[in-house]
Amino acid sequence: MHEDFERCVRAVQAKDDRFDGWFFTAVLTTRIYCRASCPVVPPKPENMTFYPSAAAAQEAGFRACKRCRPDASPGSPQWNERADLVARAMRLIADGVVDTGGVSGLAARLGYSVRQVERHVRAELGAGPLSLARAQRAQTARLLIETTGLSMIDVSLAAGFGSVRTFNDTVREVFALSPTELRARVRTAPATAPGTLNLRLPYRKPLFPDNLFGHLVATGVPGVEEWRDGAYRRTLRLPHGPAVVALKPEDGYIGCRLTLSDLRDLSTAISRCRRLLDLDADPVAVDDALAADPMLGPLVATAPGRRVPRTVDGDEFAVRAVLGQQVSTAAARTHAARLVLAHGEPVDDLDGGLTHVFPDATALAEIDPENLAMPQSRKRTLLGLVAELNDGGLDLGAGSDWQQARERLHALPGFGPWTVESIAMRSLGDPDAFLPTDLGVKVAREGLGLGPAAFAEHAERWRPWRAYAVQHLWATGAHPINRLPAA
């Protein structure tokens, strides 16, 4: 996108917010960089140059605009639409892998050498993994400066900087303001409890929240998830400890209230919440492609901006998918709640009724099969999945290889197309995952007057957005997953 100069210029002159995060505009005369929708008078085209990432603009010596805050724009949708090396690397960087394990840790997770990862990422993003992680740390620091009363020493440590000096230098370089000056610009002092932050998560319009939050709430596991005061709330397992998040649909953004046990997990928590709600999607591109089909066109017109509800933990959803095989939603929630009570990590939730973090594979490896109230075949399926996750043979995380994960899932006993594609849609985030045998999709198919073979052939027109097509097909039914819960 950033290499198409004329298209970028048109987007900037139109202040088109659909392109925020797709590219960044650097102004040669002022040495600042902006998002496409910056409200100031656009510079002359001869004074513009474009970069594929905020990190690349920063590395070239440009500082972030104080008006449009380009560092806080939605992420590029392509990192969640692709499964190649660079896209996987970008998802892992957003998940905090470079901060915890360095570039060598990133390369190990991807299965490539450090040199290969550096070369591929820099070729496409204009900056290496360290610069990209540094840009993310700068944004985290800004959030902590503006939304908490932490000392600057604590902010620097929580944001992942190795020293206060590096923190100060980075903030001045990126924002052209000192940390103290950034805090002085905030008109109201933070009034939250220690470890709690109130944030706004931006997205590209339009966004249709009904099925997004309706699905999460209707399938929510008691003790892990709940709907309270108009917000979806759930527990999170993060690198430095558990957390609780409340996500509320607002006009133009998602309200996000995070209660962290360790502020070093802030950027990882934000990344996982954005991934859960599919906030970096390009809804206009998806809707335009699906609306061109006569069968889906009326559905898209009725509810533009549908997102695919995903997950904050790929392993968790895979376990829940197995528990949901051939049973009702209520029964699946009951089975999951029993696992949580028996093996989950307890948490304190002063604002609601959350009690546990969903157990990880290590905890689930201690399951006694005799305590599982389900058929023997599903017990074997669940235990086989847990063993594969616990041994590290199956990666369902942000940087997973989608095709390899599918192959490993298919090789496990009891994993048919519905389970594999459900995991591909929710855990892996594949926008083309498809569920033709799902009951809701079958009902929609019959309503369209198509047989299985004709439907499968017709669905080829929806590539690479079949996961979004599924959301529209589900909407033809009366299931509560299609409705925004009452406040």
TrEMBL record:
What cofactors does this protein use?
Zn(2+)
In terms of InterPro entries, this protein maps to: Ada-like_dom_sf, Ada_DNA_repair_Zn-bd, AlkA_N, AlkA_N_sf, Alkylbase_DNA_Glycosylase/TA, DNA_glycosylase, HhH-GPD_domain, HhH_base_excis_C
Query: Would the keyword Transcription turn up in this protein's UniProt record?
Result: yes
Question: Could you mention a single GO BP entry for this protein?
Answer: DNA alkylation repair
| UniProt GO cellular component terms | cytoplasm; protein-DNA complex
- What does it catalyze? Hydrolysis of alkylated DNA, releasing 3-methyladenine, 3-methylguanine, 7-methylguanine and 7-methyladenine
> What protein does this entry describe?
DNA-3-methyladenine glycosylase II
Cited PROSITE patterns: HTH_ARAC_FAMILY_1, HTH_ARAC_FAMILY_2
* Alphabetical list of SUPFAM superfamilies matching this protein: Ada DNA repair protein, N-terminal domain (N-Ada 10), DNA-glycosylase, Homeodomain-like, TATA-box binding protein-like
**Top-level class of the enzyme under EC nomenclature:** hydrolase
Q: What PANTHER family does UniProt report for this protein, alphabetically? A: DNA-3-METHYLADENINE GLYCOSYLASE, DNA-3-METHYLADENINE GLYCOSYLASE 2
In this protein, which residues make up the domain named HTH araC/xylS-type? 87-185
Q: Which UniProt keywords apply?
A: Activator, DNA damage, DNA repair, DNA-binding, Metal-binding, Methyltransferase, Transcription, Transcription regulation, Transferase, Zinc
- E.C. code: 3.2.2.21
